[in-house]
Structure formats: C-alpha cells, structure tokens
Amino acid sequence: MDEFERYQFDLNGYLLVKGALTRDATSRCLAAADIMEQRIASTIDDEPHFVGHYGLRYHYDEELGCSSYQTNHGGGGLQYVVDDFLNADPAFDAVVGHETVMSYVHRMIVGPVKIISSELRYRHRGNITGTHMGGPIDARNRYSFFGRQQTASSESRENAVDFDLLNVRVLYALHDMPEENGALCVVPGSHKANFHSPYGPDPLKEPGMKVIPMQAGDALLFTENLRHGGYPNTVDRTRKTLHLCFGPIWVGSQSPAHYDGVVHVTERAWQRYSEAQRSLLPPPSPMLGLGAGVPTSNASFQAMRRLQAEVEELARRNAELERRNGQLGGAFRALLESIAGAFGRALRRPN
Ligand SMILES: O=C(O)CCC(=O)C(=O)O
Predict the structure, then answer these.
(1) What is the average pLDDT across 287-292?
(2) 29 three-state secondary structure
(3) What is d(CA 98, CA 109) in angstroms, rounded to the nearest whole number?
(4) Which of 74, 88, 300, 337 is the most exposed place for a label (fewest CB within 10 A)?
(5) Are 296 and 319 within 8 A, CB to CB?
(6) How big is the chain by its Cα radius of gyration, in Å?
(7) Is the pLDDT of residue 44 over 50?
(8) What is the dihedral of CA 269, 273, 275, 280, to 10 degrees?
(9) 0.70 exceeded by the pTM?
(10) CA angle 149, 151, 157 (to 5 degrees)
(11) How far apart, in Å, are the Cα atoms of 76 and each of 129, 134, 174?
(12) Is the beta carbon of 240 within 6 A of some atom in ligand 1?
C-alpha cells in the first residue's frame, strides 16, 4: 500500500486493486463457481438445514463443505450466498493467502490475521443487495484509524500499521462486472459518518452512492464500516463474486452460518493448504459454530436435532416448574395471610 492508496483508503473507505488475481486463477474460480451453480440452486431448500444468525435458513451440503441461503432484498431477482465456499473446489485456494491482497490486508489490520468469512455470491437478474452498514456501528465492523503507526506486541517493528480494522472485506470479480450487472456500490466516506443513513436500503435512493464497475480479476477492499450494497442486476448474466472477510486472529466469525464462532474448514481443503494458508484458517472441526449448530454429517445432524429437542423439552419443563412455583408461592402467601388474620382476630377477641 503506497501513500496514495493509504490516503484514498482512509478518505473513501475502499480501494480498488486492478488485476489483483491472475487471468488463469480468475477463470478457474469462475469455472468452479459455474459448476457449483446448478447444484446450489437445486438443493438450497433441501435438508439438512439449520437456522443461522439473523434467522437465515441455510442448507448444508456436506460434499461441498458449504452452507447456502437464498435472499431477495428487493428488485425481484434472487441471490444465493454460499458460505465457506473455499472448501468446495481447489480453484478457490488461489484466494487463500493471495499475496497481492494480503499485502494490503496486513496494512489495515494489526497483528496476525485470519479469514473470518468466505462467501460466493450469485446475483440473478433483478436482484439488489440492500444498502447496509455506514455510520456509528459496533466495534467488530468499525473503521478505526489509529492515527500513528502501531505494532502488534508479538511482532517486529517492521509491521507497523496505521489502521486498526477488525473486518476488511475483499470482493473479487470473477468476470467483468459493469454497473448494469449489479456492481457493488458504496457511499464513499460513510465509514466516518456520525449518523446512520436515513435513506433506507434501496441503493438507488441514496444520494452520494457510487457504483464501482470491476473487471475480471479485480479486487475491491473495503472497511465493513463503509455503507455498501449491490446495484440492481438488470441483465441476464448472473453476477458471480467471491467475498472474503479478514480480521485479527482473535476475532469471531462474521458469517451468519457460524457467527462469533469459527469458519468451517473441511479435512479435504485443509490437506490442500500450505502452512501459510493454514495460518489464516482454523483447523478442520465438526461444524459446530457458536452462533448456530451446524452438522458435518447426517449422523451428527440427527444427534444435534436430538440435543435441540432435549433442550426444548427441558426449557418447557422449566417453564412449567416456574409456573407451579408461582402458584405455590401464591397459595403459601394466602395461607400466611389467613394465619396472620386468624392470629390477629384471636388477639383482638376479649377474654
Ligand atoms: O455484492 C453485493 O451485492 C453486496 C455484497 C455485500 O453486501 C457484502 O459483501 O457485504
């Protein structure tokens, strides 16, 4: 990140890195996304499913190691979001520890970083991503400019950085993405706004909204604090993009599939990764994020279901006991009152 980029990133809240991913890596990722598309579309309503953060209904595909949901923020067209897509195909390994992007990420986050979410998005004709973020938001997404260079206590002074972000989002364009193909849009500078936007979620209704057309292989980095959304896709081509979030190593998952937990890495993907790539991800584990119980197999899914049913039953019994407790308390109070009354009357009775 040179001084021009640093200035622009601080000023606007985003940075467009042209041609970040090689042509070859980009077309391999696009081919993988194309192959997955039909499978995602035809299974998204299937079992097993679980409910993630924000109440999103996910279908877990054990073979791909991905969890998907569909959404429609408006505009009519559908959007499929595939969480943990990195597991699905070796082509995506190119964005795990991608050198060009990591060199920027390391200038924006203090200390060791990791991937806190990975999403493959398919946005169909008519789809809009509602505008969100911007203004005074919680620390996990807030833009923090330290004001003078700082180092992580466990690292050398060479790694001094100006920014102190907990969430840097990187969007890779897998094909050329002009405005009409549903390009990402942002309100430059909104990461420093002191008020929430009163304009609502329709990106077409917000003055100051800037659409960022991209070409295949470009990477757009932005602070999650930046107000952003997806412009309407008005053409037949489905827009396909890869989205990664990076944070300090101690930050929880940003993905609604395992919010505040850890991202899901399959054994197969882990075996493909180099040591440098592994340092950006947690080791494989059953997909039991803290935010939602996510199965890794039908057997564990059934076990999870049983546990959930048990918890629900215990909660029901607890509520019943509390109700009875309340009744008993009432009866006991009534008894005490009647004893006190009888006692009082006895005392007042003339001898
Ligand atoms: O790609 C889009 O349309 C919106 C993406 C987005 O909201 C995000 O990556 O946070």
Answers:
(1) 44
(2) helix
(3) 16
(4) 337
(5) no
(6) 26
(7) yes
(8) -60
(9) yes
(10) 95
(11) 11, 25, 23
(12) no
Ligand 1 atom closest to residue 123's alpha carbon, by position in its atom list: 3
Smallest CA separation from ligand 1 atom 3, residue = 230
184 alpha carbon – ligand 1 mean position (Å): 7
Cβ–Cβ < 8 Å for 204, 240: no
Find, among 163, 126, 153, 146, the residue nearest to 9 by Cα: 163
Give 230 Cα–ligand 1 centroid separation in angstroms.
6
* pLDDT reported for residue 150: 73
Q: What is the 3-state secondary structure (H, E, C) of 250-317?
A: CCCCCCCCCCCCCCCCCHHHHHHCCHHHHCCCCCCCCCCCCCCCCCCCHHHHHHHHHHHHHHHHHHHH
Ligand 1 site, residue 77, Cβ cutoff 6 A: no
Q: Write a three-state SS string for 109-122.
A: CCCCEEEEEEEEEE
Mutate to test the pocket of ligand 1, among 241, 246, 255 (most ligand atoms within 8 A of CB): 241
Is residue 225 within 6 Å of ligand 1 at its C-beta? no
Q: Is 121 in the pocket of ligand 1 (CB under 6 A)?
A: yes
Residue 123 near residue 129 (C-beta atoms within 8 A): yes
- pLDDT tens string 262-274: 999 999 999 999 9
| Any atom of ligand 1 within 6 Å of the Cβ of 129 | yes
